Each structure stands twice: as structure tokens, then as C-alpha cells.
Amino acid sequence: MRLALDxxxxxxxxxxxxxGAVVLAADGTTVLAAGHNEREATGDPTAHAEVLAIRRAAAxxxxxxxxxxxxxxxxxxCTMCAGAIVQSRVDRVVxxxxxxxxxxxxxxxxxxxxxxxxxxxxxxxxxxxxxxAALLTDFFRAR
Length: 143
Ligand SMILES: [Zn+2]
Known about the structure:
By secondary structure, this protein is an alpha/beta fold. It contains 5 helices and 5 strands, in the order αββααβαββα.
């Protein structure tokens, strides 16, 4: 989560909401890829931290299936990212702060653990949650 927090900090430089994500390899420690929110920086509405990290991890592995991988993200994934998580077949999602307004991994929806889908990753929430949330609160307060 430390690496994801560092990544989130980089989003601010591009004027983006500080959300960061990393994809860990099957060993649980090797970082395959990282990403931070780049919607403002790139003008791409799909440039969320998770989507970018997943795309980069797949490029590193040379395959779309991120089986045995772990996605670590500072904020609970939205519906789009939850969809990307299910599609990528990551084994585990670890997130920091809950997103009661748009979260799709246990708060408003639970897309990643929907029993109607053929892949359901393990979800671990609340890791360094206060620190992850503070980053967002500070960002919005400063605006
Ligand atoms: Zn998202």
C-alpha cells in the first residue's frame, strides 16, 4: 500500500485526484506495474489508476490474464475498475479507503464479488485506510 500511496501522490502533479494502484506478481512482492489517476493529465475518462496499472501489468506479462496477481489501490474501485478487475482475473484486490459514493467493491455495489460473475477475487479492504482517505480529503480541501 505504501507504493500505491506514493503513486497516488504523483496524480496531484497532473491535477488529478490522488488515487494510486500497483499490481503485484504471484509472489505477492514483485511490482509488475503501477498507475495513478490521469484523467485530467490525459483527457481520458477511463484513465483511472487501476485500469492503467492493469493494462501495464498485462503488457509486462504479455498476457491479459493476471492470474495469481494482486491489485493494490488506495481507494475502493469504481464500477468501471471493478469490471476491469473481474476481466483481468486478478486473484486479490487490496484497497485502502472506502468510497461510499461510488465504490463497487463492497460499499455502494459489490461488483467484484457478484456471484453471477465467473470470477470473484478475494477482497481485503481498509489497509492504511485513514492515510489513503486523508490524501483525498487534503486534495479536495486545497481546491
Ligand atoms: Zn475507477
